[in-house]
TrEMBL record:
Keywords: Antiviral defense, RNA-binding. This subunit may be involved in monitoring complementarity of crRNA and target RNA. One of its GO terms (molecular function) is RNA binding. InterPro entries: CRISPR-assoc_prot_Csm2_III-A. NCBIfam families: cas_TM1810_Csm2. Signal peptide: none annotated. This is CRISPR system Cms protein Csm2. It holds the Pfam family Csm2_III-A. One of its GO terms (biological process) is defense response to virus. It comes from the Bacteria.
Length: 136
């Protein structure tokens, strides 16, 4: 999956629909990694940082104050990609690459908001493909 197509500065409806769906389908191909609980863990943290920034009086200042913690999420994903549980990695290399690209593109309060929206779309599609793959 080519994560270069992600552009948080110029969000397009296709990014939240078609691309998010393709990405989620790719992430859910292997039933043993990228469990919904692991993906949600990273979404929840991203959402928490977004809320902290978006609900502050000075959004950009709040973003700048917390940017280091937002960027730290890349290290947390790397840890999960290297860690095994029950013989399987918690998240795949594809998820790590996607999330790295997402976090790399966060540069201000607006791109943070767009990252959260995109991740939310991916989460929805991941749930769909997880359920669809259960029934196979």
């Amino acid at each position: 999956m080519n994560t270069q197509e992600i552009n948080l500065k110029k969000m397009s409806p296709d990014l939240l629909s078609d691309f998010a769906e393709k990405l989620a389908e790719n992430l859910k191909k292997n039933k043993n990694t990228n469990k919904q609980t692991q993906i949600r863990k990273f979404y929840d943290e991203l959402s928490m940082w977004n809320n902290k920034v978006q609900f502050s009086k000075d959004k950009q200042s709040e973003y700048e104050k917390n940017a280091i913690f937002i960027k730290m999420m890349k290290a947390k994903v790397a840890y999960a990609a290297a860690r095994k549980s029950g013989g399987n990695y918690l998240v795949s290399e594809d998820f790590k690459n996607f999330f790295d690209e997402l976090i790399t593109q966060i540069e201000d309060c607006e791109t943070l908001k767009n990252a959260k929206l995109f991740m939310e779309a991916v989460m929805g599609y991941c749930k769909y493909f997880e359920e669809k793959n259960k029934n196979r």
